[in-house]
Amino acid sequence: MQRAQKILQDTFGYQHFRHHQSDIIQALLNDQDALVLMPTGGGKSLCYQLPSMIRNGTGIVVSPLIALMQDQVDALNELGVKAAYLNSSLDNETQYQTEQQLINGELELLYVAPERLLTERMLSLLERIHIALFAIDEAHCVSQWGHDFRKEYQQLGILPERFPNVPRIALTATADQRTRQEIIDQLKLNDATIFVNSFDRPNIRYTISEGQNPKQRLWNFIQQHHSNDAGIVYCLSRKKVEQIAAWLSNNGREALAYHAGMPAEVRQAHQQRFLREEGIIIVATIAFGMGIDKPDVRFVAHLSLPKSIEAYYQETGRAGRDAEPANAWMAYGLQDVITLRKMMQDSDGAEQYKRIAQHKLDAMLALCEITSCRRQSLLGYFDDELSKPCGNCDTCINPPQTWNGTEAAQKALSCVVRTGQRFGVNYIIDVLTGEENERIEKFGHDKISTYGIGKELNNSEWRGVFRQLIALGYLDVDVEGYGSLRVNEQARPLLRGEIDLQLRHQLKAETNKSAKSSKKKSALRSVDEELFNALRDQRTAIAKEHGVPPYIIFHDSTLQEMANTRPDSLDAMRYISGVGEQKLKKYGREFLTIIQEHPLSELLDNNLSDTVNETLMHFDKGNNPSNIAQQRDIKLTTVYAHLVEAISSGLLDARQVVELSDEEYNEIINALEMIDDGEDNEPKQKRLKPVFEALDEAYNYEVLKCVQASL
Ligand SMILES: [Zn+2]
C-alpha cells in the first residue's frame, strides 16, 4: 500500500484516498475480486488504474463506451502512464502497433470493447501475456432489465474460466439490489468483496422550480448562477431542443443542440465542442450524456420532467463530477404534469410495464411536491438513508409554506364533477372564478352551483391547486379527450371531508438572495477570479495544442487552488491537489509564470472576508463608494462599512476614502479625541453622536466612522 500511496501523490497528484478506494486497491493487490458501487465523480477508475500499475503485467479494462475510452487513455498518457485502447475506431496499423506493445509488455493499461475482448483471437493473445487484472466498467450493462443492456456483457462470465488466477473488479454507478445480484451471477463474482458507497452527491444543489414561464426562469437561473459555465439543458422533444438552443444563442450564450434527429457528424461536432471548449451549453434530448465524462459540467437543467427518479438521478449526476459545487435545476409546472400523465396512459405496452412506469412517475411527482428535504427523499428511493436534512436543496434553503387546501380541493373536484368531467383545467378555473364568457354560457355552466365559488384564489393559485391534485393522483387526465379531467376513486375521502389536504404555497420567483448565497459556495474568491481566468485561458491553449479536452490538462479545482494559494515556486506547486510529477514537469513553469504576472495587490492581500474584498477590488480600480454600491447592488452604508474595516486593519488611509482638507481632518480628529476621553467603556459607534453634534452636523456619519477607524 505504501507504493499505492506514493503513486497517488507522484503520478496523480492527490494527497489522500477517497471513500473505499484504498480498501478496494488492497483487495486487488491481495488477488481478491471486488464489486464496487460508487457514484459518478467518486473516483472509480483509480480503483483499477492504480493496482494495474503496481501488479505485474497489464490491466485489461472492459468498457462499452468508445468516446470514454479515448478520454481515459488521453488522461492517463498526460499523467505519464502507458495506456492504450483497442476498438473499432482504430485503423489496422494502429491496432497492430497496440497489440505489439501489449505483447512486449509495454502497456500498464489496455482499454478494450467487450465484443473485441470476446473474440477468440484476442483471448488467446491475452493468454500469452501477463495480465494484472480485469476491470469491468459500467457493470450494470449485464442487466437485461436495465436501459444500458449489452448482450456481450453477459458472456464475460468466461473470464474466470480462461484466466482463473487473474483478479477481477466490476464497477458501476447505478445498481439497485436486483441489478447487483445479476452482476454477481452473470459475471460469476460470488467470492467478490462488495464495496457500496453512498449514492449521495453532496456538491449538487437540487432545485425544483415551480411556476409559469419556464423559459424565462431558466434564463434567470443561468444568468444568476452560471453566466460563464458549461451546462446541459434537457428538453422533451427535438423541436423544443432546437428552439431553446436558438433562443439561448440569441441571448448571447454559446448553445448547441443535440438530438437523435441530427446528422451524426453534426452531433459529433457539437459533442466535441462541448468537451473541448469552455462554457458551452448543450441543449439535448436525453440521448445526450451517455459516455460523457466531462468533470466540470456546472449545471444540468431540466425543462421537462424526467419519467422516473432513476432517470433524474442519472441525468443530474452529469453535473459536478469534479466534486465542485454544481446545480441541478428543474422547471416544473401544471403542464408538465398533464403531459406526462397523458403520455403514460397513452403508451402501449403490457399492463405490467405500464403499472411499473406509472409507479415510477408517481414517485417522481412526489419528489416535486414534497415540502421536506429533496435529497433525503431522493436517496431514500435508493434505500440510502440521510439522517439529517441536507441544507443544499431548495426546500432546505427556502422551506416552502403549506396551507390547508382541503376546501379549495373540494371546490375544484366538485366543479369537475358538475361540469360533467369533460373539460380541461383552464375551463374549470374559469367556471370556479366566475368568468363571463360565451363558452360557459353555451354550456349553461354559469347556472351551476360551483360557478364563481372560487373567487378567493387567483388564476395562478388555482393552477397550483390543480397541479397538486393531479400530481397526487386525485384527478386523472383523460387520454381520449383533450386533457379533460376526471375525479379519481382516491378523491372520495377528500370530498367527504375525511382527510385534510396540505398544499404547497406557490413560491415567489427565486430571489437574488439565494443566488448570491450559492455563488459563495464556490471555492473561488472574487479577488482571485482574474488570475483564475488567465490560468483557464492557458489551459485551453495547451489543450487545443494537444488535441485533448481542457480538464485532461488540469481540473477547475486544481486551477482554483492555484489561484487561491498562489504558489511561488515549482516546489510549492507540488502541493496543489491534481499536480503530479509529470504535469509539474510539463506545465508547472508556464502556470507559475501566469501566477507571477497576476500579483495580488497590497490592498487585497489580507484576511478580510470575501465580500469586503470584493468592495476593495472595485475601490482599487478607482471606483468611488456610490459607484461600488451601484455595481455590487448593495447599500451605500455597507460599502462604507467594508471600507471602514479596511481602514481599521491599516490597509487604507481614511483620506483615501473620504475627501477632507488638512483642516477638516484635524477638526474631526480633535472632536473625536476630546469626546473619546471620558467614556472609555462605551462602544465606539455610540460615542459618535456627540461628535456629530459637536461638529455642528457638518460631516455625516460615514465620514466620521472612516476617520474614527484610522485612530
Ligand atoms: Zn435538503
Q: How would you portray this structure in words?
A:
- With 711 residues, the protein is α/β, with parallel strands linked by helices.
- The protein is 49% helix and 10% strand.
- The strands form 4 sheets. The chain has a 7-stranded parallel sheet, sandwiched between helices. It has a 6-stranded parallel sheet with strand order 8-13-12-9-11-10, sandwiched between helices. Strands 14-17 form a two-stranded antiparallel ribbon.
- The longest helix is centred in the middle third of the chain and has 19 residues, at 351-369.
- Residues 373-375, 389-390, 393, 395-396 line the site of zinc ion (ZN).
- Zinc ion binds next to helix 17 and helix 18.
The CATH superfamily label of the largest domain reads: P-loop containing nucleotide triphosphate hydrolases
CATH topology of the largest domain, anyone? Answer: Rossmann fold
Radius of gyration over alpha carbons? 31 Å
Q: From the coordinates shown, what is the CATH architecture of the largest domain?
A: 3-Layer(aba) Sandwich
**SSE-based structural type:** alpha/beta
How large a portion of the residues is in β-strands, by DSSP E? 5-15%
Task: Report the principal-axis shape.
Answer: flat
Helical coverage, percent range: 40-55%
Count the DSSP helices. Answer: 36
Strand arrangement, major sheet: 3-4-2-5-6-1-7
* Uncertain residue ranges: 511-521
Average pLDDT over all residues: 88
For the secondary structure, the number of strands is 17
CATH class of the largest domain: Alpha Beta
Instruction: List all distinct small molecules, including ions and cofactors, that are bound in this structure.
Output: zinc ion
> What is the domain total for the residues?
5
User: How far apart, in Å, are the first and last alpha carbons?
Assistant: 59 Å
Mind describing the biggest β-sheet?
A: 7 strands, parallel
